[in-house]
Structure to design on (466 residues):
C-alpha cells in the first residue's frame, strides 16, 4: 500500500520529497495503532547525523569558489594545458571539470558554473551548440565522483561507510572517466577535421605543466618530510603553505591554489588531521582565504548572497534526506526491503548478475528521482544484498553515484539537462539528442568501474596499509 500511495502522489505532480513524507504519513493514518508522530520523529533523527554537517560546508565552499571568479582561472589553466590539441576546447571542457570537481562536489554546480563559460567559448570558436552541450553534460558528471562529493557524504551516512574511503575511491575512476571523455573528443575532432583553438606556445604549456607538477609535488614533498625526516606534521604543512603562497605570488600561477583544495582535503583526512566533516569546514576556510585575502574577488555583500544561496540549497537537500529517511524506514518496517532482497537472491546469487540488475535499476531510478532522494531510498534496499554477496560497499557506492549522475542527463527529472538547455538556449529535445553520443564513454566508464573493482578500491586499500 505504501508504494501505491507514493506512486499516486508522485504521478499527481507532487515533489519527490513531499510525496515520500506524505505517503508515509497517510499510510500510518490508515494503519490502526500506528502513531503519526513517528513521521516527525524519524525525519528529525534522519538528519541528526554528524557526517551530514559536511553538506552545508561543502555547498558553501563550492559556491565560494564558483562565485569568486576562480572558474575563470581554472578555464585559463586548462586552455594553456590542452587548448592547442585538436578539438582543443572540448579537451579544455573535460580538464576544467576535473579541476572544478575537486571544489564543487556536485554535477549541477559544474554545469551551471564552469559550463556557462565553456559553452559560450566553444560556440564563439565555431563549435556546434549540440557538441558544446554534450561534452559539458558528460564532464559535469565528474563533479560528484572526484572528491569532495555530496552524494558520497549522503551514501556514507546511509550505508555506514567511511566517507574518507569513498573520497579516495573516487579519484582513479574520475581519471578513467576523464580519459574516456577526452578520447571521445579526439574522435569527433578527427572525424570533423578540427584543429586546435589556441596557438601552441611553449611558454604557456611549460607554465601549465609547472602548475601541474607543483600540485603533484607539493603533497609528496610534505609526505616525505613528515615520514622520512620525522618533521612535525602541523609545522611542515604550515611552512609548506607559506612556500606555496610565495611561489604563487612569484610565478603568478593561474590555478595552483584552487586546485590544491582537494589535495589539502584528502591529505588532511588520510593523515588524520581532520574528519571529512571537519574537512568541509577547512575547504570553506581555504575558499574564504583565497576569495577575500589572496585574489580579493569577494566582498561582504557578495558573501552574504552566497550564504543565503547555501542556506536555500542546504535546506532543500536536508529536507529530501529527512523525507527519504522516514520513507526508507517505512519500507523496512513494512518488509518491502526484505521482500526485495529475498526476491533478488532468489533470482541470482552471482555478484556480477546482481550488479547488472542493480545498474539497470539505478539507471532507471536516476531518470526520475533526484540523486539524494534516490540514494536514501536505494541504500537500505541494495546495500544489505551487497554485503550478503560479498560486494564491497565502497565499490558499490561508486557504482550507485555514477548511475545516478548519468540519470541527471535525461528527462523527465534530469537537472543537468535542464540547466544546460537554459544555459545554451536550446530546447530540451535538442539538448537530449546532443547528450546521447556521450553516453558511450559514460556507460563504458560505468562498465569498467562496475566489473573491475580494483579501479575504485586500489587507492583506499593502499592508503589504509601505508
Amino acid at each position: 500500500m505504501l508504494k501505491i500511495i507514493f506512486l499516486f502522489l508522485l504521478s499527481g505532480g507532487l515533489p519527490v520529497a513531499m510525496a515520500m513524507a506524505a505517503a508515509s504519513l497517510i499510510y500510518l493514518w490508515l494503519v490502526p495503532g500506528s502513531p503519526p508522530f513517528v513521521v516527525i520523529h524519524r525525519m528529525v533523527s534522519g538528519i541528526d547525523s554528524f557526517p551530514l554537517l559536511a553538506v552545508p560546508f561543502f555547498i558553501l565552499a563550492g559556491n565560494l569558489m564558483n562565485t569568486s571568479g576562480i572558474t575563470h582561472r581554472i578555464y585559463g589553466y586548462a586552455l594553456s594545458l590542452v587548448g592547442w590539441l585538436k578539438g582543443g576546447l572540448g579537451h579544455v571542457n573535460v580538464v576544467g571539470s576535473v579541476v572544478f570537481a575537486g571544489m564543487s562536489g556536485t554535477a549541477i554546480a559544474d554545469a551551471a558554473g564552469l559550463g556557462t563559460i565553456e559553452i559560450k567559448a566553444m560556440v564563439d570558436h565555431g563549435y556546434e551548440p549540440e557538441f558544446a552541450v554534450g561534452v559539458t553534460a558528460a564532464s559535469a558528471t565528474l563533479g560528484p565522483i572526484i572528491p569532495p562529493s555530496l552524494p558520497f557524504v549522503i551514501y556514507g551516512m546511509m550505508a555506514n561507510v567511511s566517507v574518507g574511503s569513498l573520497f579516495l575511491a573516487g579519484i582513479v575512476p574520475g581519471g578513467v572517466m576523464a580519459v574516456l571523455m577526452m578520447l571521445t573528443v579526439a574522435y569527433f575532432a578527427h572525424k570533423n577535421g578540427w584543429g586546435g583553438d589556441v596557438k601552441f606556445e611553449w611558454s604557456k604549456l611549460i607554465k601549465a605543466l609547472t602548475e601541474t607538477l607543483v600540485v603533484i609535488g607539493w603533497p609528496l614533498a610534505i609526505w616525505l618530510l613528515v615520514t622520512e625526516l620525522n618533521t612535525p606534521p602541523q609545522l611542515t604543512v604550515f611552512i609548506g603553505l607559506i612556500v606555496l603562497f610565495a611561489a604563487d605570488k612569484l610565478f603568478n600561477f593561474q590555478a595552483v591554489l584552487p586546485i590544491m583544495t582537494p589535495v589539502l582535503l584528502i591529505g588532511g583526512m588520510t593523515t588524520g588531521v581532520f574528519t571529512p566533516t571537519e574537512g568541509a569546514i577547512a575547504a570553506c576556510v581555504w575558499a574564504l582565504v583565497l576569495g577575500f585575502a589572496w585574489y580579493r574577488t569577494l566582498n561582504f555583500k557578495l558573501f552574504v548572497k552566497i550564504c543565503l544561496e547555501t542556506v536555500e540549497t542546504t535546506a532543500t537537500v536536508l529536507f529530501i534526506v529527512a523525507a527519504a529517511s522516514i520513507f526508507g524506514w517505512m519500507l523496512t518496517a513494512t518488509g518491502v526491503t526484505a521482500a526485495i532482497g529475498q526476491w533478488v537472491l532468489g533470482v541470482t546469487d552471482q555478484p556480477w548478475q546482481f550488479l547488472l540488475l542493480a545498474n539497470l535499476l539505478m539507471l532507471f531510478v536516476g531518470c526520475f528521482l533526484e540523486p539524494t532522494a534516490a540514494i536514501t531510498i536505494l541504500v537500505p534496499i541494495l546495500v544489505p544484498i551487497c554485503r550478503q554477496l560479498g560486494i564491497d560497499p565502497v565499490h558499490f557506492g561508486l557504482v550507485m553515484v555514477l548511475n545516478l549522475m548519468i540519470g541527471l542527463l535525461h528527462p523527465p527529472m534530469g537537472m543537468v539537462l535542464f540547466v544546460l538547455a537554459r544555459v545554451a538556449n536550446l530546447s530540451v529535445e535538442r539538448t537530449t539528442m546532443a547528450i546521447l553520443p556521450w553516453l558511450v564513454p559514460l556507460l563504458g566508464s560505468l562498465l569498467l568501474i562496475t566489473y573491475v573493482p580494483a579501479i575504485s578500491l586500489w587507492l583506499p586499500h593502499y592508503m589504509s596499509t601505508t
Observations:
- The mean pLDDT is 82.
- The longest helix spans residues 300-333.
